[in-house]
User: What shape does this take?
Amino acid sequence: MKAVFSKILLLTTVVLMSVLALFAQPETKDAPGNVFVGESAKYEARFSKLISFSVAELTITASLAPNGSDLIINGDAVSKGTLIKIARFSFLQQYVSTVDLKDFRILKTTKHDVQKERVRDSEAIFDYGQKRVTYVETDPKDATRPPRRIASDIDETMQDISSAIFAMRLLPLVVGKRYELPVSDSGVVYKIPLAVTGRELIKTAIGKVWCVRVEPEVFGPGRLIEQKGKLVIWVTDDDRRIPVKARIDASIGKVEIKIKEYKKTP
Assistant: This one.
């Protein structure tokens, strides 16, 4: 059960963390991933089973890399006191994605994952010349522990979970249509189908907005999470494509994610 909960927490983190990227606006037609930087946002995740309680807070920033051609998406997710008191479970997850803006594909993913006493650092490098992703995970608390290594073949354009949601913004997202994105997580490659299943008026912290409902198929045999479950993301039905809400339903309970604060600095 803890393993499943951990995977869902990771998915919650990267879904939340990826939201900020969707606020970005394309700068040129030649490089649709170019953005005006300076966005920051805060989100809250609530878990419910028999009762509902807040489990995490997330702070997100997006900036251009020093080379001026890559986008850096940073996110920090920290467990809240209620989760620690009720479930006796704490976590810190820091996730950094480096995205090539011109071709809009992931270049590198780094994670720092702390779950109670367990700590893991990892890095995934995407080599499009060799069409290979190499993932290395280490235990910083145990220098004698051998690194965990995974390598997989990749397509010419690949995403991690964070950049995949950014890539989703560039799709037409027509109600009734289905799409597919190639995604790599922890060195393993998945083809994630996306179904646009409806249009709804949603009340949010940034106002009452019409949204399209997108359902990425990440649960099930051979998928990102090999358990029964469902992920739904609501994004504004306008040119901005702002994700305003997400929900994860799983056997252990439900996680609901909502935007709480958004600002942009010059």
Summary: Residues 1-5, 16-29 have pLDDT under 50 and may be disordered.
